[in-house]
Amino acid sequence: MSEYKNIESALIHGGISSDKYTGAVNVPIYQTSTYKQSALGEFKWEYSRTGNPTRAALEALIAELEGGKAGFAFASGMAAISAVLSLFKTGDRVLISSNVYGGTFRVLDKVFNNFGISYSIEDTTDLEALEDNITDDVKAILVESPANPLLTVTDLAAVASIAKKHGILSIVDNTFMTPYLQRPISLGADIVIHSATKYLGGHSDVVSGLVVVNDDELAKHIAFIQNSTGAVLGPFDSFLLIRGIKTLAVRLDRHVENAEKAAGFLSGHKAVKKVYYPGLPDARGYEINKRQAKNGGAMISFELYENYDIKKFFKALKLVQLAESLGGVESLVCHPATMTHAAIPYEVRQKIGITDGLIRLSIGIENINDILADIDLAIAESEE
User: Active-site positions?
Assistant: First the structure.
């Protein structure tokens, strides 16, 4: 647990926040691959795949922020997810939310399936059906809430309770919310995953992944996998991520303020058929999200009516940029069906609601009037 009562202070001073050797108020970049040992078998640091002081500071920080026992930093969000999935063995099955990040689906479908680790896609908002589908081969439930890209809300405490009842792991991808807005471990989750490339880094300048566990044995297993497979985050990227986390609270406050206004704007727009944003009072899962998270976050998805051409919409945008990823200070837009979720087969996308007309917005921290004016003009220019 953090020694700080308020997370805004822990973001800046949590974990290992200074350098004991020099007094530097920021942990330096220990850009080294190996370390001098004082005698045979006597050392604090051995090799930077196994451990590095800059990475260790980041790992201590994310563990404290999420309220877990240990944190681990990886070279990407997918490396983090892959490390967690490496806990399982042939014959095991993982239940996943019906709309998860396309990369999560892809690595399960195309990589771990090859090793006999299977998955089932479930509507994790239907708790009774979810529990009914837990058979002896199921070893974990992996959820996102709000989920990518339909912002579906899952009751994390209820899923964790079901998992514990059946002796399996509950895993939460907390990328969209971060520990500033939602803390799954406090709700009972065993493992939390982040694509730290997104809000935690916050500036679209580092690719990274984080894992936090709430059990000492799990920590030993993840540490072994991290060292054995070697997809560790380098010291410079670890430094950048620590720096990004320090401003997470002030950035997310602005992100969310803008997103709430943007969601209201889109909800009232004549061209918009549907808006997906868990911060809207009429959104499905609003009450659950309100109970388990600080607010609705800063991700919005929406659909235009059929007489609007989304290709023209994307082309007409000037300030909001068409790009992969999310969570940076700049506003980004993407087309999930052909970008982030292209790995999911068409028939599956249609079944779960990731239509060809779905647009996903990552609202940045620019002036909201500029963001809305850009979106409004692009919509107008896309009308047929």
Answer: 49, 101, 173, 198
